[in-house]
Amino acid sequence: MRRTKRIALGCALLAAFLCGATAAEEYALDRALSLFGEERLAEARQALEPVLERDPGHSQARLLLGILDARTGRVSDAIRTFEGLLRDHPAMFEPYNNLAVLYAVQGRLDEARETLLAALEHQSAAVVYENLGDVYSDLARRAYLRARSLDGGSGASSQAPESDTTGAGSLRTGSCARAGGFESLEAAAAAVEWLRDREVGIAAVRLEEKRSVASWRVFLPPLESHERAAETVRDIQGAGVRDVAIIGDGDLKNGVSFGVYQDEKNMRRRLSALEALGYAARSVPVDVESADEYVIELSAPGDAASEWKTHFPDHPIRTAACSEVSLSQ
What we know:
This protein is of the alpha+beta class. It folds into two domains: about 5-140, Tetratricopeptide repeat domain (Serine Threonine Protein Phosphatase 5, Tetratricopeptide repeat, Alpha Horseshoe), CATH 1.25.40; about 155-329, no CATH class. Helices cover about 45% and strands about 15% of the residues. The chain has helices at about 25-35, 40-55, 60-70, 75-90, 95-105, 110-120, 125-150, 185-195, 225-240, 265-275, 300-310, and strands at about 175-180, 200-220, 245, 255-260, 280-300, 315-320. A six-stranded antiparallel beta sheet has the order 3-4-2-5-1-6, with helices on both faces. The protein is flat.
């Protein structure tokens, strides 16, 4: 939900965050919050870990963990954290609003509405009313899109192509397709109007998360000690591999790095070369970017597909398997 107030994911609660903490917890939480405020999110998570290790049920530390997960794109993890907080602390206000924001991001508008209404039972806050207004607005748009799609039938065919072929030229009358993605529901609704004017059947408008990977790290998993990692590096260099180094910190500390690759093909070639030398290297994506987008599922006459490419050049249309999809899902 593009307009939902993301600031509800943390800033309003920071002033009271340290209430009731012990001296050690206060120091760790204060450090984590300072790093969070500076947008140093990975370091904030590291500062928070000792608190959670000592007390996994610590409510304020869990709350900040959920906020960090949400800010770094781990939406499912954040949802689990906030849902767990509400099970353990049903009178705690912040998880309600934060959980509703994330439900809305996933397109779960009915759950977002119910969660915001539950938040208002605990605290009357302006941001909740604003978010609730946005939810009702998006629910109204969803209802409108569904009404438009049901007007005259979808026209979808049960015959679907086997492959996901890119390009408007491959789309036939009666085939199914996916068009998108659009950054806002308003833009998707405008595209739906355009398609309906050309008698294209609309099956659904979906909110999806688009993830892109800028680069990959190739590495050997962490070894039991720095000394063991150094020994492994010497063995690897003896096999003729020079661009290798010990990872000094983070989750992969004492692992062995073979570099970061921006080209996926080069990354896979490196993995294969290392496997040929007897090293079971792995890869992990770094610099992952995620964004929400709206995708239209439709049946696509060929002439409309050709026009689409001209009118919506930045939003490709592709063949896809036909499916029974409703807008309420």
